[in-house]
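Batch manifest, entry 17 of 40.
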Amino acid sequence: MKRKKREVPAAARRAAAAVGGLLCAMAVAALAVTEGTGRAATPPVDDVHAVPVAAAETGLVCPMPAELEQPDVGDDEFSATPVDTTTSLTGAVLDGAEGTEPSLTTLDGAWAGDLTGPPAAGGGAAVREEQVPGARQLRVTPGGATFAAGTVASVTTEGDLRGMVAGPCAAPAVEHWLVGGSTAVGSSGRLVLQNPGRTPATVTLEAWGASGPVVLGSQSLVVVPPGEQVVTMLEAIAPDQSRLALRVTAEGGRVGAYVQHHRIEGLVPAGADLVVGGGAPAATTAVSGVLSTGEAVDDPHAPRLDLLAPGDQAGTANLAVLGPDGPVRLRGGEEVALEPGQVITLPLGGLPQGSYTVVVDADVPVVAGAAVDRMGTAAEAAVIDDDPYDRAWLAGQAAGSAGIVADGAVAVPADTAYGVTLSGVPDERDPDRIEDVTGSTEVELRGIGPDGEEAWTRTVDVPTGETVEVPWAELSELGDTVAVVAGQSADEPGVVWSVRLANEGDPTLFSVLAPTAPLAAGGDVSVRRVDAAG
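Output type: structure tokens
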């Protein structure tokens, strides 16, 4: 039976937001009252009260299905899209979902489906939607330690868009940093801006390339109407850029932002994926999930790391490469000179086969990302015999001095093989001393099943300075999994991790996703009554 669109959740969201805003305003007003001397009033301690303020409902904005801009040529043998693209959405909400029932909506808030499971009882909820027609939101009200994760994956087995184009459902924000993509010959990038709010958002775009800042002119301002999305072709506003980094800032509302990138080499598909937001500029960042198949140093398909110092000062970055057997020295690449405003690419060829994490420490704030290629096999009916490639873009993760905690979740699409990569990040990363680091961290992995309940648990010991891979061969025996959740003790050495997804029918179609952090829960706000005149 077809379900009717529900009106209550939207009204409830507006009411909850209004109440939360009023309480916050009362708290701020009370705490801001001053005496005639200009100093803050100091009432008796027992006049301060803690007022609980529930967390407002949160919407994670999901990518739209992957698609090509160019028209079909009318001949299937030479078509850019000779086969259909299949797109799925997988989501999970767990560990204390409270308040309104988790659900899926369109960008403008219209109901698009419920999640299964008993969230009201403190359990979990999950959803798998096949053939997603457009962008979705995963809506949930955070509870005590809620995790919410969603993944949209588009799979195309042939043609220019060949690859697994996958990205997470992410919280809208006023700032996004996107490191990756290109507009050089053979490459195309679609910048997608999504506005799930009720008011227009004015977005400012900034771009940097290999030669420095890219002048966008009037194209740097984009207005995104409420409940809609706007697509901008990057080759139209920033042409002939062999590498790119973007900053997206919004006024008037929070937006989602990502780049759908694909490229071809002559007539051979060379990969497609999403460039998603990573950590903001910081002195330390980490990129997890770099996969080496033993490529030579000069192999154009070897992994690569992109770095940008977006400020106006030059600097130096030091790299620590953590592999299966511990830290690995790069030949002349452990120290990198940073020119302000220039995207610098560091080839990672020459690494032994395995999974790696690259930790970047710089004396100026930097953002980072990486690209990994995987070779496939030419189709029997292909016009060109050259083997195609797929490419995954990896986002940099925050890894500040305050410590790294592995808590997070990644949703796993159906019919997808997956593996988990975990790296223990040492506090001491000096090249002359990093090989002497000791210790390890225990990380608890949990798998969430299609019913929203915990399906399995596994404890992984991650040695400091090393990268551990939990492969699909081991995880596939644990049962159908909708999401993987990781957690560690805050007083142990930090761990960064990622999940590598691969199409079960063709494992050379792949993508790598960083975890989604726990949602912010509600808390107490201190308020006090202050008698004041005027």
